[in-house]
Amino acid sequence: MERTPSSTVAPAGALALAGVTKTFPGMRALDDVTFSVAPGRFHSLVGGNGSGKSTLIKIMAGVYRADPGGTITVGPHSRSADGITPAWSHQAGIRFVHQDLGLFGALSVTENLLGPDMPRAYRSIDWRTAHHQAQSVLDRLGVPVAARRCVRDLRPAEATLVAIARGLRDADTTEVNLLVLDEPTARLPHTEVDELLDRLDALVADGQTILYVSHRLDEVLDHSHSVTVLRDGVHQTTQSAECLDRRRLTRLIVGEERGILHKRASAAADGSAAPILRVEGLTGGPLHDVDLDVRPGEIVAVAGLVGSGRTSLLETIFGVHGYVAGRVMLGGRPIRRGRVDAAIHNGAAYVPEDRARHSAFHSLGLEMNLSVADLHRYLRKGVFRRRQELRDAVSDIDRFSIRAAAPDTVMAHLSGGNQQKAVLARWLGQDPKLLLLDEPTQGVDVGARAEIYEQITDAARGGAGVLLVSSDLDELLHLADRVYVFDGGTPVACATGSDITPEWVGHTLFNSTEDE
């Protein structure tokens, strides 16, 4: 793609953000983010997991409300960042295509494109006119898909192009100032990536402005006019793509110096110890032929980008999902596939990523959240021993440094960090053989994070094996004895001990896909 050389992005253009900040309880997701996108340009937004990209997009879409003080300008439309609504965003001419395309597979392309605007005649849908209108949109945008086709029969690239066409279908009558694409190639087969990117280049050549979010750095460097880098919620740079190469961009994403935390003293047993967990040839869902093991006292980390299969790995080991091939051995014994009860019985414990949806019972008391993993111990002849439950809760609150007014404090009234410590304490109280942790300190303040690290380290010192999924580079460097990097549902690299460096993690994470 021929690019117009530029060392800086024009100060006024299709999009300008000034001082955009977003604070969640216990963390600041965006901190005074300011940059602009020139009109008619392919502009990429990059950063590691947790850098703030998704939060920024959700603010622009009116899903999240920013902190007071910032402004967002789109073309001639400007508004305080804390006042953005979905209606204003649409009126300002922003169109979004998310990773989840939001298409209805059982419906036709026409129905997905036109939605509630399907033409009607005599109180019924005028299908002939509808198909004609939809096909006109597809042809105008150069999308090689027939309007009458069923969406579930489309190839992934075709489905993505249909989602883009849906966003731009009124561009001939309404000014679409910005098309935002969030990881559009993340789930595309490599053979279809070029097809999509060629179509995006053609749209830009016709004057469309694109804000493109991707972890695939070759795509960013080969197709962008300019690039914005976010790291830890802070704007690092916005500059011409011609001034960047893959090595420099990787360093901007990862950071020049990491490792504020000191590397923990490993409690891992020697290599002759039998693994607590052994995964052999595990295949199912997004996972393909996964082999790994975890030994007593060892903290093994799994890193990977969106769609890499990290969370699916933990869920499959814990029995949330079944699998079609391979086996999972815990303590030398096979775990029956798709059976959470069997995993728990064999000594596995799992703390999922989404605490609010999958782990914490917000309307119940802290003591109930702590006891729920083993309610049978409080039953005697059909009677529930409530006083014993409260006494144990008091002990756990002290042991795990949970800050709560009383053991029966409603979970929703605790801070995010204390909620997470409670969820972790629920399982650590069972003395698990294997601790499966998915982003254990996400959304947790610095103080609670240090305490959670100590709990994880204590579990390893006690002989438990830990399999940790994390997007936090400092966390990987501080905790892990061994790190597997996943891409496409399989481990593509592994490092141990002193080989786990910021440079190795950054290069492997952001370049494994392109090097395949």
Descriptive account of the structure:
This is Sugar ABC transporter ATP-binding protein. It comes from Streptomyces malaysiensis subsp. samsunensis. 33% of the residues lie in helices and 24% in strands. With 516 residues, the chain is of the alpha/beta class. It has four domains: 1-93 and 175-256, 3-Layer(aba) Sandwich (Rossmann fold); 100-170, no CATH class; 260-347 and 432-516, P-loop containing nucleotide triphosphate hydrolases (Rossmann fold, 3-Layer(aba) Sandwich), CATH 3.40.50.300; 366-429, no CATH class. Helix 14 packs parallel to helix 15. Mean pLDDT is 84; it is low at 2-12.
| Overall helicity | 25-40%
CATH class of the largest domain: Alpha Beta
Give the name of the CATH superfamily of the largest domain. P-loop containing nucleotide triphosphate hydrolases
Question: What is the second-level CATH architecture of the largest domain?
Answer: 3-Layer(aba) Sandwich
Strand order of the largest sheet: 6-9-10-3-11-12
- Main beta-sheet strand count, sense and barrel state: 6 strands, mixed
Radius of gyration equals 25 Å
Uncertain segments are 2-12
Count of beta strands: 24
The tally of domains stands at 4
β-strand percent reads 15-25%
Shape: globular
Work out the helix count. Answer: 17
**Beginning-to-end CA distance, first to last residue:** 22 Å
Mean pLDDT: 84
Which structural class is indicated by helix and strand composition?
alpha/beta
